[in-house]
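Title: Comparing notes on inverse folding

I've been comparing how different people in this forum approach sequence design from structure. To keep things fair, I'm posting one structure and asking everyone to reply with a full sequence. Here's the target:
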């Protein structure tokens, strides 16, 4: 599993409390504890929790599927995550799983707890919902992402027209009810939805991609901002579907973590002025 790609969740001052909550439920550990950034590891998977402020609110356009191997495990996670949360789809037996539920926890993070076969080592799988003007574009998104990153593939695809199941909203038969794709060894699920949810992708849940060098940084940046994507600041961008990515050279983390606080601060200040991260300019600032 690739730990160079991981989700980043945006908080307004309660990242640490949330980190402790998830580590407690999933037997995880906190690997970085700073006022702005908390990194945690759940089942060997990295997640970043960012105290960014009140600007963005997390929503169900990106949820986290937890694949469980026993009914007891489903129940345990469900009960703990429901503390202060609310059910979006009740924990029940469905045609796709004997025990499944979808909930929003007290930190506005949405989880799908699923009894199924874990086909790989990745236990928590981000799930992207394509809706509104993106409804019907899940396939196009998978094609963009898998063509951008190495070691990528599109896996199983279930279209609405394939299933016999009736849906509360009339979905186009060619649209994707559920699909699996992998970018550089990291698994995602995705789906189309014609339901008029009152939310969409925003910066509150983004994917961080750690890069080895400038060439890789440039390639991901160019590919993901092309054709209607938008550049933002400090390595952030939105692709043409409005989904947020952070393209972060490993060198940036190394220089920002320098034991000399003055040097580290110069690097942070240089980074704050950048859209795409330019490693050479960070190094100049570091040595200035």
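Reply #1:
Here's my take.
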């Amino acid at each position: 599993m690739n730990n160079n790609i991981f989700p980043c969740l945006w908080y307004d001052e309660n990242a640490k409390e949330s980190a402790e909550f998830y580590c407690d439920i999933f037997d995880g550990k906190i690997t970085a504890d700073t006022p702005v950034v908390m990194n945690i590891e759940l089942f060997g998977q990295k997640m970043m929790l960012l105290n960014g402020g009140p600007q963005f609110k997390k929503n169900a356009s990106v949820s986290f599927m937890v694949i469980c191997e026993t009914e007891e495990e489903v129940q345990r996670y469900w009960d703990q995550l429901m503390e202060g949360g609310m059910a979006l789809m009740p924990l029940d037996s469905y045609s796709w799983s004997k025990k499944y539920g979808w909930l929003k926890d007290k930190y506005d993070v949405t989880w799908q707890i699923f009894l199924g076969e874990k086909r790989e080592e990745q236990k928590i799988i981000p799930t992207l919902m394509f809706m509104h003007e993106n409804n019907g574009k899940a396939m196009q998104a998978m094609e963009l992402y898998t063509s951008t990153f190495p070691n990528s593939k599109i896996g199983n695809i279930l279209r609405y027209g394939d299933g016999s199941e009736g849906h509360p909203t009339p979905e186009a038969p060619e649209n994707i009810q559920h699909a699996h794709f992998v970018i550089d060894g990291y698994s995602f699920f995705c789906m189309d939805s014609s339901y008029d949810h009152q939310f969409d992708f925003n910066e509150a849940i983004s994917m961080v991609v750690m890069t080895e060098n400038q060439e890789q940084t440039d390639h991901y940046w160019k590919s993901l901002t092309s054709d209607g994507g938008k550049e933002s600041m400090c390595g952030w961008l939105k692709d043409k579907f409005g989904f947020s990515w952070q393209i972060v050279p490993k060198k940036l983390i190394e220089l920002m973590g320098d034991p000399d606080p003055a040097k580290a601060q110069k690097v942070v200040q240089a980074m704050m002025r950048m859209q795409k991260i330019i490693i050479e300019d960070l190094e100049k600032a570091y040595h200035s």
